[in-house]
Task: inverse folding
């Protein structure tokens, strides 16, 4: 097992990518602390995998400290941190309100900083560890009306590089992960809006949203969890300060040539 005798914290672990990651880590031998704002989902996942649930707000410094203390006190240490909790507030720069901007930055960017900062002493005490910051393809290309989200997710790439440079000498790897479309409750919410606008089903909306993605489909949460596992395990021992893009090839496509395609295949 690739995470035998390891202890991990997975934030936003009640649903979607976080839940899939917590389950996969447990199958690979890890003891997992699962965090999130809603008690019921994280408690259900923790109960299923023999983990510990810690309810709280990712943007709260006290919650970050509690998650780390729970890992150390409950399982004896800490080896892996997956900062996955996220939120979004719609709006272009001219339309973004202060509260939405602040909340998005606090959860998506400051929250991972708080968790990593709290976790570093415990990671270093075990001889180092792996930090995975779940970003988004929004860190590489921008969608419309998403100024706060795009900015917050872009910041995670810089945060991972900074942690890698400063703490790799102490054994701590840090990398960012950029998924594209993923079938999760958050993804469903977005494509349901598209489905309503177009009068189509959710499945059809996912196909439409990924029509120009080379793989012509969204990822599953399990596929993104596998990327987290790679970055958390010894298999990525030479990888730090890097960005792993898991988008089915979306950012490889040249959007400027799409008008020349006679039709979308698949």
Result:
């Amino acid at each position: 097992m690739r995470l035998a005798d390891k202890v991990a914290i997975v934030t936003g672990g009640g649903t979607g990518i976080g839940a899939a990651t917590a389950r996969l880590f447990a199958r690979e031998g890890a003891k997992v602390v699962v965090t999130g704002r809603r008690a019921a989902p994280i408690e259900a996942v923790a109960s299923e995998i023999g983990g510990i649930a810690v309810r709280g707000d990712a943007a709260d410094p006290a919650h970050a400290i509690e998650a780390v203390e729970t890992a150390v006190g409950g399982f004896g240490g800490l080896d892996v941190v997956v900062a996955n909790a996220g939120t979004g507030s719609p709006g272009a720069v001219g339309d973004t309100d202060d509260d939405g901007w602040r909340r998005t930055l606090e959860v998506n960017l400051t929250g991972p900083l708080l968790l990593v900062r709290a976790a570093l002493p415990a990671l270093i005490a075990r001889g180092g560890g792996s930090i995975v910051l779940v970003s988004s393809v929004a860190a590489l290309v921008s969608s419309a009306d998403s100024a706060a989200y795009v900015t917050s997710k872009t910041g995670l790439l810089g945060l991972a590089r900074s942690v890698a440079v400063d703490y790799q000498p102490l054994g701590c790897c840090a990398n960012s992960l950029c998924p594209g479309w993923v079938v999760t409750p958050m993804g469903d919410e977005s494509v349901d809006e598209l489905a309503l606008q177009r009068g189509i089903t959710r499945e059809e909306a996912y196909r439409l949203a990924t029509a120009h993605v080379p793989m012509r489909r969204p990822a599953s949460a399990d596929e993104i969890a596998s990327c987290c596992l790679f970055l958390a395990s010894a298999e990525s021992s030479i990888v730090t300060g890097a960005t792993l893009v898991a988008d089915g090839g979306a950012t490889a496509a040249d959007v400027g040539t799409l008008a020349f395609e006679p039709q979308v295949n698949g």
Observations:
- The longest helix spans residues 98-125.
- Residues 177 and 244 are 5 Å apart (CA to CA).
- The beta strands are 7-10, 31-36, 52-55, 80-83, 129-134, 172-179, 182-183, 219-220, 243-246.
